[in-house]
Amino acid sequence: MRQYVIYAAVLLGLLTLVAGCRQPEPAEYFGFQNLVVGQVIGGKTDLSAIVKLYNPNSFKLALKRAEADISVNGQHAGHSLLDTTIFIPAKDTFYVPVTLSLDMKGLFSNALQMLMGKREANLVVDGRVKIRKGLFTFNRSFHFEGKQDLSSLMPSGSGF
What we know:
A hairpin with a 2-residue loop joins strand 7 and strand 8. Strands 1, 2, 3, 4, 5, 6, 7 and 8 form an eight-stranded antiparallel β-sheet that branches. The radius of gyration is 21 Å and the shape is elongated. By secondary structure, it is α+β, with helices and mostly antiparallel strands. The chain has helices spanning 2-20, 104-115; strands at residues 28-37, 44-55, 61-72, 75-82, 86-88, 92-103, 120-133, 136-149.
């Protein structure tokens, strides 16, 4: 009888381990806030914002690293690297501070389009994240593509 209890405990432990190995669902993007544009130095500037995301998983996670390349209207706009741990609650929204190094040369054509009246840009973000769930670490790639209202990025009173 005692042998069956030990087998049942081992089986339960293995089932828990296998359930813990399930790949997490990707976070849902809800937008950004607190956009700050840094000083332009040598044709480059830093852009920082807080990205709002939602964790659809029923378990908490830890974001260990995130790296992304951003394109605006097909032009490479910049690169972002986050190399700090952010704890993500289960089934809840969370915020990630992002700093993006922008290459101003790639953005000049988009600025010209804005001056000519175009108020929307196609934003593409491709990257990889490293997330931890308990003892397990996962590397996942992600892709986001969507329209961004350019006038919402300009400070009020800027004339755009």
